Amino acid sequence: MFESLQERLGSILNGLTGRGALSEADVSAALREVRRALIEADVSLEVVRSFTDKVRAKAVGAEVLRSIKPGQMVVKIVHDELVAMLGEEGQSIDLNAPAPVVVMMVGLQGSGKTTTTGKIANRLTARQGKKVLMASLDTRRPAAQEQLRQIGDQVSVATLPIVAGQTPVEIARRAVQAAKLGGHDVVILDTAGRTHIDEPLMAEMAEIKAATNPHEILLVADALTGQDAVNLARSFDERVGITGLVLTRMDGDGRGGAALSMRAVTGKPVKLVGVGEKMDALEEFHPKRVADRILGMGDIVSLVEKASETIDAEKAAAMARKMQAGKFDLNDLADQLRQMQKMGGMGGIMGMMPGMGKMKDQIAAAGFDDKTFARQIAIIQSMTPAERSNPDVLKHSRKKRIAAGSGTDAAAINKLLKMHRQMADMMKAMGGKGKGAGMMQRAMGGLAAKMGLGGMGGMPDLSKMDPEQLKALQKQAQSGGLAKGVPGGLPGLGGASGGLPGLGGPRLPGLGGPGVLPGPGRKK
Q: What is the CATH code for 101-290?
């Protein structure tokens, strides 16, 4: 979503940090470029003016211009103002009210209200153990009520039975009554939308609000809306009084202006963001983490959280035991690749790692992409159980059969086997003899040096932590204790090389050994 803005701001601010001293003219010139970058990203003009004025007021002060590293001070000021624009702290849906808590979803047609209703219901059920009832109040759009019913079946959440002929207000009242009688904790009202803001729409929203007295009114807006997002948010807030925003399609290729503008204009927090089409593709919005990503600082906290959500504790324990025994077969490698897929693939992980944004073109040119995971898993799945457990038996005839079954060729199979051998050798060296911890530390230290982290040593291997250790690490990350460190071994990788596994494609320049990505700034 913020890729183009990240690239522009990154190049502008890098120009400042590379200088030994800054003059007022330097700061003003940089802020002109920042202003242009924000406008090109579809941020509202009034928000851009306010942002640059605040940055200028702080950035041309004597404290900055005379500081030891004035460029870095300016970057910090820009970062802090971005966080202030997006909202100081992330806020989740407020359920502190007598049950059933009424949550009303509003927005234009096509913004994703119905799907988002299902995602929120799924999230509240799975994560907080709430009993949720969903009700569609959209009597105009064909099959809108049936769509919500099918989503309810998909996520195993109850939906209000459809009764033909009822008005939206009557359906809303019936939903609240049914939630009370059924002992539901939350009732989510999926209201109708229009292709544009009009008086009948606003009047209907106001009637539903008066009839149900919702505790939360969430405006669902498409993150690709652009400049008009400000008018949309302001209109709904003035007429209905929204309590928060939900931005959909944050995984799209839009420029991100809506996310930056709507919070600043309405003063209402962005509570959730949709990051995909699946029912679990909904995340809380954390302003500081988004600001970190925009400025290319990575998002280690989210990476740790994702790891804690996706790591299977039993599999992690089994992997740790196999590592201690120095064993690592192709079944284990397939598990590691699937773990990477669960965490959002190569793109998702790279977006959260500091400095990796600058290497995007290098990584793409080297052939690293999410399709590589699928190809390598397909190769492993085309093998027999005996072949996965003992890859040494794979001769030419077997490779020919596997290539036909996986839609690849012998060269791809050989690359996979070479990568497995390298990882298995490292596992063997790390296992047994009590030297594993020391070798892991050295591997992490090597990666940290490659990533330009000096003596920070990277983060510990998340894949071998139990849930309690992951929680402790998450708290440490949130408190700033991990600084801008990069994980020494990403979850699901078994710590094979303290970094991402080599994926069988061409090696990136600067590779110090198998399966380690180079640090930022490495050149061909």
A: 3.40.50.300
